[in-house]
Amino acid sequence: MRALKVSVLCALGGAMLFAGIALLFSGGDVVSGVAAAVLGLVLGLLAAPEFQPGAFRHAALYQCVCGAVAGGLIGGWLTQSIETGLLAAGIGALLGWLAPRWLHHVQGP
User: Fold this and answer.
1) DSSP-derived secondary structure for 9-57
2) Per-residue model confidence as pLDDT tens digits over 83-101
3) H/E stretch holding 6
4) Cα–Cα distance between 87 and 3 in angstroms, integer?
5) Per-residue pLDDT tens for 7-60?
6) What letter would DSSP give residue 96?
7) Cα–Cα dist 88/60, whole Å
8) Of 32, 68, 75, 82, which is the most exposed, with the fewest CB atoms less than 10 Å away?
9) Which helix (H) or strand (E) holds 82?
10) Residue 76 belongs to what H/E stretch?
11) CB–CB of 5/45 below 8 Å?
């Protein structure tokens, strides 16, 4: 239950942060705001196990799946090609697997 609570809070925080920045810099374009919110949601899920590591049994698998989804969404939105989306999903899964090593270096506001 704690994992679900942490996941929801991180996902909503990431979605609001990314959507706010996108809306601010795109002149209020709703499509850009929604796309950024979805990306922020998935990346917030990717970071959730780093905030409460004891709440997640299989944190590495969770982060790999979230990274793959985020990479696939980015690749699909940028090129609308299945091959590029799958390659981006693979790169995202690798970044998700390596997340415990690089997320500690990301500094927030």
Assistant:
1) HHHHHHHHHHHHHHHHHTTS-HHHHHHHHHHHHHHHHHHHHHH-GGG-T
2) 888 998 999 899 888 888 8
3) helix 2-25
4) 29
5) 888 889 989 998 999 999 988 888 888 888 988 888 888 888 888 878 888 888
6) H
7) 18
8) 82
9) helix 82-97
10) helix 59-79
11) no
CA 61-84-80 angle, 5° bins? 115
d(CA 75, CA 26) in angstroms, rounded, equals 20
pLDDT at 107 over 80: no
| Site of tokens 């790999």 | 64
Q: What phi and psi values does residue 76 have, to the nearest 5 degrees?
A: -70, -40
Place of tokens 């500094």: 107
Write the CA distances from 54 to 3, 6, 77, 100, 104, integer angstroms: 9, 11, 34, 14, 17
The label of the residue with tokens 């989804």 reads: 69
